[in-house]
Design a protein that fits this description.
The protein has 76 residues and is α+β, with helices and mostly antiparallel strands. 16% of the residues lie in helices and 22% in strands. The protein has helices spanning 7-12, 14-19; strands at 2-6, 26-31, 34-39. The chain has a three-stranded mixed β-sheet with strand order 1-2-3. It starts with a strand and ends in a 37-residue tail after the last strand.
């Protein structure tokens, strides 16, 4: 569902505005009745980050070691 409000209204109660967002919602911010921005809920809302979350997401091609030279001091 889409809600419209002026940027002044949103600024006055930003925590409340962000707190009311649900999946699929959006808030369109306006300035002088012209849309200028949208606020959307995050897909990762409430998901805690921890070490190793992205393990396996990076693929390094064996035949392309050129870019690894820049990281040699960090690699075992």
């Amino acid at each position: 569902m889409s809600h419209m409000m002026s940027i002044e209204q949103a600024a006055a109660k930003l925590a409340e505005v962000v707190g009311m967002l649900k999946p699929g919602d959006e808030i369109v911010l306006t300035d002088h009745d012209q849309p200028i921005a949208r606020i959307l809920p995050s897909d990762r809302r409430g998901v805690r980050r921890k070490p190793g979350n992205c393990k396996g997401m990076l693929i390094i091609r064996q035949e392309d070691d050129e870019h690894l030279k820049h990281f040699s001091e960090y690699m075992p």
